[in-house]
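1st attempt posting a full record on here, be nice pls
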Amino acid sequence: MLQISVKSNVDAVSHRLTGFAYRQLPFAEARTVTELVKLAAEAEKAAIPQVFDNPTPFTVNSVAVQPARKDLPVARVYIRDRAAQYLAPYEFGGAQFLGAKPADLVPVAAAANQYGNLPRNTIRKYMGRPDVFLRTVKTARGEVYGLWQRPAAQGAKKTRGRAKGLAANATGKLKLLVAFHKPVQTKKRLEFGTRAQTIAQANFNRVLGAELAKAIATAR
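the predicted structure (as tokens):
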């Protein structure tokens, strides 16, 4: 969560205001910081697809805003808890967060969804087949732990009920369906905090001027 406060900026402006305009400043200040974090949130959402390839809507829409109040002119832009767990290493550094997953599951010959991820229960579904197993296999590139499919026996009859979304392996050799990768140290960075601060500072004067004008115009 990033807290954005523009108190020092507001204090500098307050010294130049008349009595009437000064009395409207608390309203304008709360609305200003709220509008600034909204601008920051939109910038953060737009940046996520530039950092990650084809992120899910859940990840993009995890950026949220907590508005300011007149009595507490502090607004916040943050990542909701579930997404924050796996996005935090891309902001602060560290290893990938995998949660309850045993590894980073990378589809190789298994069908992935539109975001490049395995559909839910794919592993369980494939493990129900007699020609699929989960273990480490020695390959020309080293040992690979993953979900593998045995080659179909020559002349074996196709069984409609066994398909379970996966065709028989006709390659004559083992086929890697899903690779299980250990979590790695993250290299990409979201720059969430830096971006939000930059947006807030760049737009402060414009937004405060507009909100102060509205507060004065609508004052009773």
